[in-house]
What we know:
By secondary structure, this protein is mainly α. It is 69% helix and 7% strand. It has helices at residues 6-13, 17-25, 44-58, 63-74, 80-119; strands spanning 3-4, 33-34, 40-43. It has a 3-stranded antiparallel β-sheet. It is elongated, with a radius of gyration of 21 Å.
Amino acid sequence: MTFYSPAQASEKTGFSIDTLRYYEKIGLLDRIDRTAAGRRRFSSDDVGFLGVLRCLRDTGMPIAEMRRYAELARGGAETVGERVAVLETHDERIDRQIEALRAQQEHLRGKIRYYRESFDVE
Length: 122
């Protein structure tokens, strides 16, 4: 198995080292391996899971829901249905956000058209 230092895990995932520590402290990351000297080292599985967390965070999932998802993920195959439900709920929320952003974008585009037509702006 491949292991990564906190700096390497940070580089691979885009999370700061402080965020990695925080995620471990609040239970998003569980059982991070330690070297004989007590330094954290992240497995390739940890880095993969951080990729999932990056997606959830970047799409606006609240930390409490991310924690719930992480707990379910540690629960094994018997929690797959619950994990799917958490992700589907989040996906629906993203759809609503995209719809709202599209409406706002259309409003902006209308304003741009107005200025270009009314003031002969190129």
